[in-house]
Fold these 3 entries.
Entry 1:
Amino acid sequence: MGHRRLRLSGKPRILILCEGAQTEPNYFNWLKFQNRLTSVVVRPPRGRQSGPQGLLKRLKSELKRDSGWDEVYCVLDHDERTVEIDIFKTDLARLNNRRASTRIEMVLSNPCFELWLLLHYEFTDRPYASLPEGSSACNGVTNKLLRHIPNYSKNSIDYLNGLVDRVTDALVNAGRLNSLEFREGSEHLPHTDVNELVARLLKIND
């Protein structure tokens, strides 16, 4: 438990575990740099541990290696994997019940993280779904995002500095989107929890 007493500047030690190897770690490392969040650690996946169950294994391994995290956030895409996500959610709840000292949260985007990036530029509440010819729901979001960031790709970081003055817009748009979830047919609405994590990180910086 020594780690918990040695926090940098008295700020909470936060671990962000990303399911994605590029887009999410790039974004959170950029946000960390912009806001000098020295007590925040961002980790992309290593090796072959993929999907929600791979993320769960990584989470358990990280907690075993270092029990001093105050908060851990697991960032993943829904990507039309309802059953896998539900299992992950249940496993996370079980883990949270056993670990009073660390708060563990799922940060889910439906259909994918690109929705959060799109919300920096515009509000959207249209349902995104796979098309019969094989185009995924995430492709629909990415195609819309490309109108704002023509050079966007998962391994690119060039577009990130263009988001500096737009983070507040994204927070507002995501809050508005998530408030619509109680209306009829809401299970088909896009959704993101990333705004809650970003708001938390910005609050630490205040």
Note: Residues 1-6 have pLDDT under 50 and may be disordered.
Entry 2:
Amino acid sequence: MKKVLQWIGITAAYLGLGTMMFFGIPFLLGLLMVFGLESEHAAMDDHAEAALRETGLTAYTEYATWHDLTIDGTLTAFVMPKYDNHVDNTDLRAGLMALAAGTDGWHVEAVSAADYAARIPAGAAFLLPDVTFDAWFESAEDMAFFDQESGLFVHLREGEAPKSGTIRADKLAVPHDGYVYTMETHGGLLGDGTTYQALIVPEEKRTTLEATLSAHGDWHAGAVTHAEYVQLHDHEFYSLPELYPADDVIFDWWCYVNTYTRDHPDFVSEYTPDNSDFPAVMRAAGARPAGNWLIALFDPDTGLFIYYEYDS
């Protein structure tokens, strides 16, 4: 009887182990993936949600986009979706505007792009939207602007000033004055997503950076116009924030790297993707979309440096 029970126990253990291997581990991995994505999205939502809460528009925090741009917690810019597709296509932007009209600190008055630039710290105003804001907010600690047509919401925590330093752009150290717009959507089990950064290189450091770029194998001299940048920026795959530099910006330096090919030099693909969204100088150099790639641009006149990488 003892041996029978022993064999029953061994058999049950093997069955339990097999069941766990077949069902349990995939289930556990699934849970980890779900929790990982939830944590990723929750972290990304924090800046936009906080902007709405801190300006009294708490009722709309659930609609805050996770494709926001933030400067070190000091300034956050994001686009409020136009519709809630789950509730009869409710116009969220109109609702937010109506709520602002009855909320302390908000003023339903037009703010021009020039007036906006005058109120925002100079280093943070370089991604100047070509809009007239419909409402603005101010308290002892916060300032915000909202444009109903585009959904653009900009929130500034006054009295906080980021410190100057450098960012790493594919092993290149790029100096900045403290105001670095950052969007990061990489995460989840596979690490897919987009990294986007935009900053101003201080004037006294632009010549040195140009010299560094001219000696760098991945960087090229050649004009990328504002219109070409906007077309590239608006590509459906990248989900970049709807903020653009001023119309007169022309990038004199550019970098494109197919990071998948760089990491897998023996890889050969028979697929030839369309590169019509790429600027002319990049098309001439053979740049084409890929599953993993990065682009960087620099305008030495304004000091605007933009970097983004895409992984799928």
Note: Helices lie at 2-54, 92-101, 113-119, 206-214, 226-233, 259-263, 280-284.
Entry 3:
Amino acid sequence: MKIKWVLLLSAMLLLCGCQKDSGEKKIITLDIGEPSLQMQEAIDRFNASNDTYCIEVVDNTGVSDAFSVRALKLTAGEGPDIFVAGADTHFQEFMEKGVLEDLKPYIEADLKEEEYLTELLYAYERDGKVYAIETEFQIVGMVGAKEMFGDMEGWTLQEAIAMMEAHPEIERFENAEPLNVLRDLWLFGGIDMTDYDMLRECILFAEKYGKPLENYEQEIPGVNVLVVYGALKTPLSLANYEALYDTEICFIGFPREDRNGLMTGNGGLSINAASPNKEGAWAFLRFLLEEEYQSGLENCFSVRKDVFEQKLAEYSVAPTFEVYIPEIGEMVTVETTYSSTNGKEIKPLTEEEMAYIEKLARSCISTSGEVNYGAWAIIYEEAGAYFSDDRSIDVVMEAIENRVELWLKESD
């Protein structure tokens, strides 16, 4: 019954949220797919409290390729006011064609940077302009056994190759198909798209070490796989991995030449440069960056420094619960423990662990801002032919080079 009343209230807010006494509010279109429950609640609160603007979610029901359809509209000077550009495969194209509004002036005029994790606030900054903004984030990268990685804070492709060769007992880079391993090396590796020698090396590496585990075998870093694809979503994610793999682990990014391969994971929100309601679009982004929305985030981290630190601090003490003791006629506070996904006990965070998680967070880079999906589509197709034994490596590399060079010319 309570759920029905919540849904009814949300519907009422939506119906009346786009009207005001003096007339209709200005509609701000938001294209983010299906909103989470928390996002929908934020939309409802914004619509109910703002006298000028109203958020209207774009319905992509029945659209087979929403990203491509939206890209065509945006490059034509149309499309939604706000959208998830940070998760779009057309992000670099949007930057080059001036589709994305520069958010830096809004940030500088309306936010106190010291209140945020500035590395995340400016994760999508390129050439002095900010093309998207993270309202929440995860830390995406690779999980490895600390016994093998030591104090490494990042690694290069050459180091990944050397580590695999130094441990012949480990036959797999990760529990993944060759194309997925190639993606993690090349797409997320920040490799120049015209460095075909490096690409060839990545393809051969992926062929040799891209082997999914069989017979429901569990992946174990440092035993049957070198690393595991992982994401830190909560303050306890790090400890949860250690409980799962029963070893001390380190969180290391994808292999990159700059050793900075940790990704933000969520995808930032952008404002359409052609939007007639940019101030209203920013008002909603600003609303999402306020404490009310940020403090309620689940399975991701807040970009607000105070909320981020508060969440870490909450897990630095053991959880408690109240129990009534009949013999003494009083409620007594009992201390308990956290639990991992496999039921093992997790201790509260230490100061060292909290500092480590913050360090990882401040090392994140944006995913879409660093990769080129246009070239990747070509490489994915041609490398797939090699992995399925349809073509030789020489024929595949020649095809990739010819197609990428042609694509670059057509893109100018």
Note: The mean pLDDT is 89.
